[in-house]
Amino acid sequence: MDDDPKRENLPWTLDEYLVVADLYLRRGRSSNANDPEVRELARLTGRSTGSISWRVGNFQRTAEPGRGLKPVTGDAFIVFHAMVANEALRVGLVADARRRLMAGLPSEPVELPAAAVLVAPERMLTTDATVNLVARVEKRARAESRLVQRYIKWRDPLGTVLRTWLLPTEESTLRTDLYDTERSLLIEAKAEPGRESIRYAIGQLFDYRRYLTPRPRLALLLSVKPSLTLIELLTEHHIGLITPVSRGFKEELV
């Protein structure tokens, strides 16, 4: 029988997400609705044990694309990845969240150390700065922008799935092209399917992935299908291929 779910029909707070994320990170999907820790969290949050168990499944899908339920999004998604990467941060955040929940206090904004941040994808349109670029580079940038926007319209018409990572480094902040939050898929877009372009994209994907935990799958979004030799190069490095077709896109993911 569930504990008294006083908050069952209210939106979840960040603190509630944090304590359930902590349970998943410590024990994985092993806990169920009758588990003592699940029942304790139900009492702490005012939720049913079924709701707690369901949220554990959401975090499983976030950490392991293809398994569990629908992944978490928004602030919960960002903080979850920070908790995965930094155990000391996780312990501190969860202790503060428990303290506020026990006292009936509202959640507080979480200040994270410099780390990767998910933002909405922007239109990669050229600006006045491009007047200083050679025509070939400007043309390529515009072609990549059209390719990305076409893919966004096809894959994410409601704007809830595709995002962009901002990755702070010692030199600058890197910005990825696209990240599929449902499939933990990092996507780099290139307008030209030539060897130079694809080799450059492989390097970008590998560099970006070093800053993300858990490490995402990789895919290259191209305007046309490349040569067989280059497809083999992508396959060898476990990078999927996404190309336009008449009714959308063909995804060959690995």
Explain how this protein is built:
The chain is of the alpha+beta class. The chain folds into two domains: about 15-105, no CATH class; about 115-250, Trna Endonuclease, Chain: A, domain 1. The chain has helices spanning about 15-25, 35-45, 50-65, 75-85, 85-105, 135-155, 195-210, 230-235; strands at about 115-120, 160-170, 175, 180, 185-190, 215-220, 240-245, 250. Strands 1, 2, 3, 4, 5, 6, 7 and 8 form an eight-stranded mixed β-sheet that branches. Helix 2 packs across helix 3 (about 50-65). The protein is elongated and about 60 Å long. It starts with 13 loop residues before the first helix and ends with a strand.
Question: What is the strand and helix layout of this fold?
Answer:
Blueprint: H1 14-27, H2 36-45, H3 49-63, H4 74-85, H5 87-103, E1 117-119, H6 135-155, E2 162-168, E3 173-175, E4 178-180, E5 185-190, H7 195-209, E6 217-222, H8 228-236, E7 239-245, E8 248-252
Parallel strand pairs: 5-6, 6-7
Antiparallel strand pairs: 1-2, 2-3, 2-4, 4-5, 7-8
Helix pairs in contact: 1-2, 1-3, 1-4, 1-5, 2-3, 4-5
Number of helices: 8
Query: Average pLDDT, to the nearest integer?
Result: 86
User: Helix share of residues?
Assistant: 40-55%
Q: Distance between termini?
A: 43 Å
